[in-house]
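hey so u asked for the seq, here:
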Amino acid sequence: MGRELRLPCDLKFGCTPGDDVAGEDYVSTLRQIMDNIHERVRSNIQGASDRMKETYDINANDGRYQPGNQVWLYNPQRRRGLSPKLQSSWEGPYEVVTRINDVVYRIQKVVHFNRLAPFAGSNDEQAEARVRHVSPPDSELSFEDFMSLHSNGQKARYGVTREEPRDLFQALVDFCLAHCVAADLRMSRGIALTFKKAFGQLEELRRQRPEVGRVLQITAAEQEKERSVFYLVTKQLSHHKPTYQTVWDTLVELRDVLLSQSISSLAIPKIASGLDGLDWRVIRSMLEVLFRFTGIEILVCCYNPRRSLNEKTVDCFFYQTSRCKN
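ran it, structure tokens below
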């Protein structure tokens, strides 16, 4: 009721209510300690900033680009389907038009100094024109890796193959032809029989000692021009069935032959998927993967001259039984 409380200790030791006690300076002391901490932190931050600026100034090459110099522009762009290691991060060369300030330059657009690099000139363009640049095939992808990815019909499309409903034997003369055969070279059924009647030269094929996995080659004269015809040996006997492994090995051999002869256009039927019974989706993915980096164009001719283009491949069961309502 307006009076200060006197505790038993005050009565014992004789402390009067007006005397100073030790706890009264706690708040002011705490405030002083916090101010000292903040001051030290600000000092350390400023020191770190000064050290960083000093390091940057040492590494920066200020003022080496002048108007008229040619430079590369650092402009990384991610492209889907390519590893970042295979993508170019620099483009150009560009000519420096204006130096706006110490770190900003104008070429065809305003860019920062750190995105530029000096251009030292181009290589001999005539020497480069004589070299055919072919990217190496993806050696990391083995047959087992391919089958684990595409055996379920998953598509691989890199723009290598192109399907068209046209007659294979009416393809442009600039396209070489290829199809699958057995090592016995009987060719008694299917499109193999048509190849046998059209081009013959069985003795020449036998002299090349056909074996599973090999590619046989003959030259046929058509329309006053010559083109190569390749026979892919994918099985031992005509009544046997090829496997995806033998088709893979034969296509690898075909790829090497085409590259060695600088052939860039190939026309084929839907190989290994007719009487041989393999899944064309898997075979096409093989072609896409194996020929991805070769620059070879593969035209797949799927036109059957005995069947109208408007006719269904497999008739509807209800249509056959005259019960189809559509």
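DSSP finds nine helices and twelve strands in the chain. The first strand starts at residue 70 and ends at 74.
lmk if thats what u needed
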